[in-house]
Amino acid sequence: MVRKAVWVVLGFACFGFVVTAGIMPLKVSAEDARFVIEVSSETQEGVKAEMVDTLLALQTIVNKTLEGDGSAIAEAIKPLTTSGVRGHPEIRMFFRNYPDMSTVWRQMGRYGMHATFDRIESLALIQPLDKEAMLEETGTLLGYCSGCHMTFTMP
Q1: Count of domains observed in the chain
Q2: Band of the pLDDT at 100, cuts 50, 70, 90?
Q3: The CATH number of the domain where 14 resides is what?
Q4: Structural domain span for residue 144
Q5: What is the pTM of this model?
Q6: What b/e string do you get for 89-116 counting C-beta neighbours within 10 Å, with b at 16 or more?
Q7: CA distance 73 to 59
Q8: H helix runs in 32-153, sequence order
């Protein structure tokens, strides 16, 4: 069964609150509400490594935004932008069997998280750094992270 769930991320920015929200489908089961992506252990490790890179990039975004260092932000996130991300052919092949979930994966991944990294990169190159806009986009980014982790899992 597929239900819709609403995700909301609240964050405190230097100049006020940052709020982002969206709607995502959730596959509901008795054991776990997340959709299981079954791919090789090698692909799983690659995806997990990208998640660690994403967390490190988020830490850099927050720290360097507070310092006003846009060039360090742009450098740290370049591999996570839509032009920098490599993708995983095995995941694309897996999702060919699940077109609805493939659409959700792309919306949260390429058109969500990675496109938000694109916007953050653009903001990082403008000086002086607009800290409020940067933290607002970071809140959006965290919403995609949460949404994806609430929707998908790997065994």
Answers
A1: 1
A2: very high
A3: 1.20.120
A4: 2-153
A5: 0.77
A6: ebbeebbeeeeebeebbebbbeebbbbb
A7: 10
A8: 41-67, 70-77, 89-95, 99-108, 115-124, 131-151
